């Protein structure tokens, strides 16, 4: 059984584990910080930490799976008379909403996720799951399958736009993340709102002119 320091209570929440892990990441670097060090600093056993996070690479992502569930729910609850582009834009903004008190921590999180080479392979998996939520919604709205070209493209475009907004937000702390998301997602409206552009019939007419 792990021996705890005097008066140090065991950590039993995701937030406290993240707080300790990020402190170690800042002090030692992500690559040089081990799961054992995080668990020891938290006063818990290694196997207990794994009940909260399957791996060290999962810690910077926080409770990402729950956030995806909320993203999917937000999309489902968008009014039917709202365009697909607006529904995706507003839901992505809701997904990326940050309370003012948590902005600095979110910047630390996103800098780590976007600038740490060791996390890029894991990011590919996480981003794939995020894109799948968007693609599933678009497919349902347009009577398609999520793996069809149009929904799949929208998922990739939406991710690229969100990441572009984040890059700007991290470079300039005076900018507003919601405003940057609105600005980048303007491009999505041009693609989604002109549904004729993706139909074979439209392409055929264009060739015949």
TrEMBL record:
GO terms for molecular function: DNA-binding transcription factor activity; transcription cis-regulatory region binding. Keywords: DNA-binding, Transcription, Transcription regulation. InterPro entries: Homeodomain-like_sf, HTH-type_TetR-like_transc_reg, HTH_TetR, MftR_C, Tscrpt_reg_TetR-type. Residues 11-71 form the HTH tetR-type domain. The keyword Signal does not apply. It holds the Pfam family TetR_N. It comes from Janibacter limosus. The keyword Nucleus does not apply. This is Mycofactocin system transcriptional regulator. It comes from the Bacteria. The gene is mftR. Residues 34-53 bind DNA.
